[in-house]
């Protein structure tokens, strides 16, 4: 057998079902962490800093897990399976303990653990679709995965609201996390673990020998780390200098202390790049650091152009995740502070809004996106989706009744479906199979870096220009999605070249 067999619908279901549980965990995190932080006394302007643990963890974890999973084979457990299981166990534990956190710092540390664990499970799932499916099924595979992401997010987002209507207390008594959130997190931990276990037990991964036959011999696979031996240190010095300049600018410009982290990351990559080059020149070209740095610098042109789109798309999403709860509670429900019953009502309505856009995404992934892609192409379909999201964010300024925000979430849901499916469908067929894990991990760097940028810079912008008015973050979100849509024009040209 020289070509992968076509997967039935049951096969597509089993391959991606684990993502249903993972997304329940992400949805509980996205919809409730600002609420938990504010319940413990965090100020609105400090939310970005508290959230920085999540994208920083993803930045460090995803390339490493991608690199390692490409080189793993544990028989029946497989290539990606060990990472699915390990991440699921740790994430489930974090979800169980999170609502029991006694203080703000402990909750922030658990967020770090939760996001690291979710990333350990999630990153290999992107490559897993490419591993298991032939090229003509990639679009279908990522559409099914996106549908599960949407469905899992609906369950995770709406569960606290459902619990309240079933009679579970939604009061933050004595500064503690409400029972609705506590029970939802415990449910999420169990659902995450069982869903991932389903995929591991029902899907047999192809062995390295089978994958070699399917993929053939690709010259691209020889590129990457060995090429570092011939590179100079100019780019490494430039990254180090950029990081130093950012950190030196914090005090004179009156920026928030979080910007030091951004400068440190720029300098850190410069240092890692220099070390990788030095190791390659010394003959150690197969070490992890040199491999990751070499693959990052040698990304295909199409991947680089898609990375720009991802950068701006995920900037908008992270703005939404951080700020929707304070926006809705303050601007639409009139909550004076996080201890007010109005705040808890607004926070629960955000759960409904998040469930709505995820539900729309699940439906759009299986209906609207395939319909448009077959007629106008994948690149233009993604442009349409991003423009729908920009309109959804902008509509927050036109709406007064919070119930009408459900209409805003339709546009955001279409964009979310497209962001989760179209870039990966465009990219997967152009990558060498044996490096699919590392390339997907590196591609997700451009999901994480914008989140770090938002977490470090948005707080400074809001404090200086819009203190106490988080609604204006939606204007930034709409603008960044417009930029992402325009950047897709270059992707379309690269794809057709």
Structural overview:
It is built from 19 helices and no strands. Helix 3 packs antiparallel against helix 18. It is mainly α and 497 residues long. It is globular and about 60 Å long. The relative contact order is 0.15.
Poorly predicted runs: 217-226
Beta strand count? 0
- Give the C-alpha Rg: 22 Å
Helical element count?
A: 19
Biggest sheet: strands, sense, closure?
none
Terminal Cα span: 31 Å
Overall 3D shape: globular
Q: Which bin fits the share of residues in helices? A: over 70%
Estimate what percentage of residues fall within beta strands. under 5%
Mean pLDDT score: 84
Derived from helix and strand composition plus strand pairing, the structural class reads mainly alpha
What is the N-to-C order of secondary-structure elements (H for helix, E for strand)? HHHHHHHHHHHHHHHHHHH
Summary, kept brief:
The protein is mostly helical. It has helices at residues 9-39, 47-51, 53-70, 81-97, 104-132, 138-165, 179-202, 208-215, 234-253, 259-281, 288-297, 301-332, 341-366, 368-376, 378-394, 405-428, 436-443, 445-465, 473-496.
Key features of this structure:
497 residues, mainly alpha, 75% helix, 19 helices, single chain
Detail the topology: elements first, then pairings.
Blueprint: H1 9-39, H2 47-51, H3 53-70, H4 81-97, H5 104-132, H6 138-165, H7 179-202, H8 208-215, H9 234-253, H10 259-281, H11 288-297, H12 301-332, H13 341-366, H14 368-376, H15 378-394, H16 405-428, H17 436-443, H18 445-465, H19 473-496
Helix pairs in contact: 1-5, 1-6, 1-7, 1-12, 1-13, 3-5, 3-17, 3-18, 4-5, 4-7, 5-17, 6-7, 6-13, 6-16, 9-10, 10-11, 10-18, 12-13, 12-16, 12-18, 12-19, 13-16, 14-15, 15-16, 15-19
């Amino acid at each position: 057998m020289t070509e992968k067999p076509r997967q039935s619908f049951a096969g597509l279901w089993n391959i991606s079902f684990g993502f249903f549980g993972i997304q329940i965990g992400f949805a509980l995190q996205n919809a409730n962490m600002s609420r938990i932080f504010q319940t413990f006394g965090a100020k609105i302007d400090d939310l970005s800093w508290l959230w920085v643990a999540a994208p920083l963890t993803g930045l460090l974890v995803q390339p490493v897990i991608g690199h390692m999973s490409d080189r793993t084979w544990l028989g029946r457990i497989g290539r990606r399976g060990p990472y699915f299981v390990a991440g699921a166990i740790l994430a489930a534990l974090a979800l169980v303990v999170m609502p029991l956190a006694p203080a703000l710092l402990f909750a922030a540390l658990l967020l770090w653990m939760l996001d690291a664990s979710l990333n350990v499970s999630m990153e290999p799932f992107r490559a897993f679709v490419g591993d298991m499916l032939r090229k003509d099924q990639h679009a279908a595979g990522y559409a099914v995965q996106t549908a599960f992401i949407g469905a899992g997010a609906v369950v995770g987002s709406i569960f606290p609201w459902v619990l309240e209507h079933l009679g579970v207390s939604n009061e933050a008594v004595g500064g503690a996390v409400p029972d609705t959130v506590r029970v939802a997190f415990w449910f999420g931990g169990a659902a995450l673990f069982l869903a991932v276990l389903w995929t591991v037990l029902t899907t047999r991964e192809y062995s390295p020998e089978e994958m070699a036959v399917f993929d053939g011999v690709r010259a691209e696979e020889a590129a990457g780390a060995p090429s570092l031996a011939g590179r100079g240190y100019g780019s490494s010095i430039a990254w180090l200098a950029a990081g130093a300049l950012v950190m030196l600018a914090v005090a004179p410009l009156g920026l928030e202390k979080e910007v030091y982290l951004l400068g440190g990351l720029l300098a850190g990559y410069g240092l890692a790049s220099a070390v990788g080059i030095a190791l390659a020149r010394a003959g150690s070209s197969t070490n992890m650091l040199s491999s990751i740095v070499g693959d990052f610098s040698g990304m295909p042109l199409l991947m680089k152009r898609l990375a720009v789109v991802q950068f701006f798309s995920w900037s908008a999403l992270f703005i939404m995740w951080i700020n929707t709860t304070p926006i809705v509670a303050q601007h639409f429900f009139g909550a004076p502070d996080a201890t007010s019953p109005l705040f808890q009502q607004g926070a629960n309505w955000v759960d409904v809004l998040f469930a709505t856009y995820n539900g729309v995404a699940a439906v759009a992934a299986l209906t609207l996106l395939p319909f448009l892609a077959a007629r106008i192409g994948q690149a233009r379909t993604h442009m349409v989706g991003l423009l729908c999201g920009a309109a959804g964010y902008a509509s927050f300024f036109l709406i007064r009744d919070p119930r009408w925000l459900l209409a805003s979430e339709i546009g955001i849901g279409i964009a979310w479906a497209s962001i989760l499916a179209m870039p990966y469908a465009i990219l997967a067929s152009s990558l060498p199979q044996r490096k699919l894990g590392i390339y997907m991990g590196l591609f997700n760097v451009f999901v994480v870096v914008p989140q770090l940028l938002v977490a470090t810079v948005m707080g400074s912008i809001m404090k200086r220009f819009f203190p106490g008015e988080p609604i204006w973050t939606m204007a930034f979100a709409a603008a960044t999605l417009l930029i992402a849509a325009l950047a897709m024009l270059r992707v379309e040209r690269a794809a057709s070249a």
